[in-house]
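Worked example 4.2. Below are the chains of a multi-component assembly; read each line carefully before continuing.
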Amino acid sequence: MREEMVVASSLSVTFEQHKVLDGVSFKVGEGEVFALLGGNGAGKSTALKSFLGTVTPSGGSASVMGLSVASQIDVIRQKVAYLPESVMLYGHLTGVENIEYFLSLAGITSAKDKIESALKRVALQQDAWYRSLSNYSKGMRQKTAIALALLREAPVLFLDEPTSGLDPSAIDEFNQLITTLASEGSTIFMVSHDVYGACQIAHRIGLLDKGKIVGMFEREGDNPIDTEAVHASFSKRNG
Amino acid sequence: MISFSDLKREAAFLSKQRYVVFFLLVALALSIFSVWSGVAETRAQIDTIERLLEKDAIDREDALSKQSDYGSAAYYSFHLTYSEPSPMAFAAMGQRDIYPWKHRVRMLAIEGQIYETDADNPELSFLGRFDFAFLISVLLPLFVILLLHDLRSSEREAGRFDLLIVTAKEEKQLWLSRALTMSLALALVLLIPFLIGVLVTGASATEIGLMLLVVLGHLGLWTIITLFIGNPKRSSSQSSARIASRLLAVWLLFTVLIPVGSDTVINELVESPSGGEIVLTQREAVNDAWDVPFSETWRAFLATHPEWESKTSMNSQFEWKWYYAFQQVGDQKAAELSHGYREATQQKDTVASIVALFSPPMLTQRLMSSIAGTNISSSLAYEQRVRDYHASLRSFYYPLLFNDGEFSHQALSGMPIFGESQANEAESSD
Amino acid sequence: MSVIKQIMWDEWRYWQRTRLAITVIITGVVLIVASVIVNAIGIQHAKHEREHLQHAAESRFAEQPDRHPHRMVHYGHYVFRTPSPLSIIEPGVDSFTGTSIFLEGHRQNTAMFADQRQSSGLTRFSSLAPSFLVQVLAPLFIVLVGYASITREKEAGTLNIMMTQGVSKRHVLTGKLFALLGAGLLLLLPMILASLWASFRGESSLVTGSYIVGYLLYILVWSGVVLGVSALSHKSSASFAGLIGLWVVLCILVPRIGSSTAAALEPSPGKLEADFAVLEELRKLGDGHNASDPAFEQLKSNLLAQYGVETVEELPINFRGTVAQYSEKKLTDVLNDFAEIRMQEELSQAQIARHFGWLSPAVAIRSFSMIVAGTSLETHHRFLREAETLRFEFVQSLNKVHQDKLDYQVDMNRSKSAETSKAARVDASNWSVLSSFSFVPEAGGVRLVQGGTYGVQLLFWFGVVVLFLNLAMRRMSE
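Applying the procedure described above to all three chains together yields the following structure tokens:
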């Protein structure tokens, strides 16, 4: 058994008496790409945030790399990278400056060429690197944040709707990158409502509805997960 | 804990934020203005005192040279008293625009002279001065609120909050180092002009140290208040504007409501004789003396000055010693009221010092003017010095008047001068 | 029209639902009502006290026994300044100037016993005066209520919806402006009622009318500023920060910077210093107590010639009294010259500070309010001048009594013995020469003229805001 990197056991989250997550359990192993799928309000973002410590569970527990979120969040945060749904960085800084700043927040000093090679890797056009971020498109911001995540060299990546708002070619580039990262040993936990995209890259997919896991799909061999099956299950719930 | 590198990182970060830089530049300009106007005003006061001293000496010399008896000499010679601004006064002008810092007195009843005020332009006093103490006590909290209220909420509103705290090594450290950097930058721009001002006027190291302590203490307090109210655990979904509104309410409470409310209560609580009563009493006493038998004046006078008992015989309907005796008696009759008046001022000040404990801006302002020697106590102390000096004039002239000696200008050269070894010569105050 | 009304109603409903605005408005109104009440009671009390003291001083003077008239010149008299009706709203410089003056021969004393000298020192920045609350705090309240009036519609996307439904920007801005003005009027209401009361207590209705109009303009200016900034901002937080910054600058900074600038640019030498110059002038006049002072030779020979006699003893009048009158007149002329110079200095100093009204509406309304309410420096100077007129009048009347009713020989022998001293007196009935004093500020029309410049400043601000709103309307982003 591969090492368990991200574990939720009977995780529940309540907001103002409303159960957003209701006893959710799953495990994500090392080098695995795990996608949590669900419609609006299914609780998938809340599930993701439970691992980052920005949402406090009302029951159950969440752990990352064997560390409990409840008690060791500061240690966890040094080992994970996070890509928010809508990446917002500092408009008054350039792309490179943004990365430098966020890295130094994490206590990392990276040489310029290392940052530049990361930006090259995520395919951010070169003429934008030293331009103010206020002129970036959503996709460009997304790429900058992915470069940041790469430079963190974090074993675990949390991605919140990573492909929403990206154009098709950017999505392809992104998917390729994720697959490579996973093959290099990174664990990837993503939440999405994009059934097709998730099936392309995920090793496993959990289907979340009204705060509960209602289905689990796994890749068999090298073939992508059957989109049809997931879709059927998904639209039955969200029909 | 916050390390130096955290501060360096945030400083570099903030220096690229145009809004913050602009804000700090404005604060710097205001601080420069406050220090400049403070230094200019204290300079003007020192110059005024110098010029007055010169004119005063010439005028007295001139007046004395024309006299041929001690009584007229005392009647026609005025004496300048003054309270110089301390080297720190430029930073906190305090009450110096309302309480007088210069008086010219002569040996007539002091109660008839001491309330004359050569005060500043009342309209300017009403508008208030923009001194360093005002900048620190009233405006600094507003600066801190404007800079720090959205420390966290602005990141939330800009959608960077989660990324920031997930990326940062320690969340608390991030906010603290940011807040600290901003506070320190603010302290820097506010204090640099002040320190230059101090170099110009030459205040003592202790005073500078105390002043810095007060400024940093007030800044620290408002930083803490702002961080506390802006804490997302207390107001997770609060918008920046809501947090700032709350902070402004706190500012309003501390800066306006508590002082104004307490002032109203204090004026009700502390009974004070009306000032008019004092001067009326004194005037009646002095004027009645012309109509009452001499013996009555002498009785009252000798009660406090028994040493002149054998020298009270009168050869005429008017003698200077009798004239000054009833002036003294006039003071004695008004003494109780005058004491009560000063005591009430003192008492109000004491109560205000307790109230100030509940209003950090007031406390700051009071501490600063206390360090600068421009508070009410200092003004009362100056008034006491004037009274002491007046008393020393009396003890100088009485032997000359009562002993009926030959008039000589030589004898007048020993006349006490305000500010010179006055403590030794002073008799008991009034 | 109904669109504007609809927008206005919607804004009020929003305030009511979100509580913040309604809390602010209620707090503001309660504060202002409290201050009007406390201040009105305080001023009424002071008014009665001073009227009483004035009365007492007058009857004391009249009750003095038979005396040498010159003794009464030195006995002197007190005058008290009774507050103007509108000072229940705008105490102005009153608490910083003395409220009573001791009047005596040969001297012009300063006004004594300013309230601030007997206060706790807590009210140097703020005061409970309704004028302070309306001039300084009301703008803050309007900011808190209205900073998001347009930005919230932008942030929620509702502005776009309104625009696509054919609502014009002008309608939106007008509706919101009326809503904001409504809030401002609520804050102003206690003050308006107090002004009407002042009107009832004897203030001319022209004055109270203009006074209210002045404050309405002020509230209008701030409502416009708040609305304009909100329209030009993309986010509520930016609008808020900008408006608070503007409030700090206009209401707190500029007035004080004006005052400090005036003090630094035109330092006044102070009365003490001017007194030396006065003294120099006075020495040339001679001592009025001493009729044989060579300075009065000319007067003497003129008089002797006029009455056709050889010596002063032969004059039908008391020469000492004549000299006293003559020298008091000369001395007063000198004193008045210097006093006028000093008042001019004070006034031009104040005017420098008041010019900052072109930089801040808060300074404009403050100057306007003080002058129109009759609590300005000008009115204080009027008090000083009236007191001086009274002083000169009663001193000269006493000197005339001295001249006409006291025999010269008797007067010259007054210090010989107790009997001669008693003989050198005049009847107490002569003390009725003192006329009664009751201070009233300048007539309403005069004050309005004096305050005209500052009314113009307010109108200037009104114009600026109209232009600003037009600009905001054109630039308003959606």
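Take a moment to check your reading of the output against the notes. The first strand of chain C starts at residue 77 and ends at 80. Residues 417 and 423 of chain C are 10 Å apart (CA to CA).
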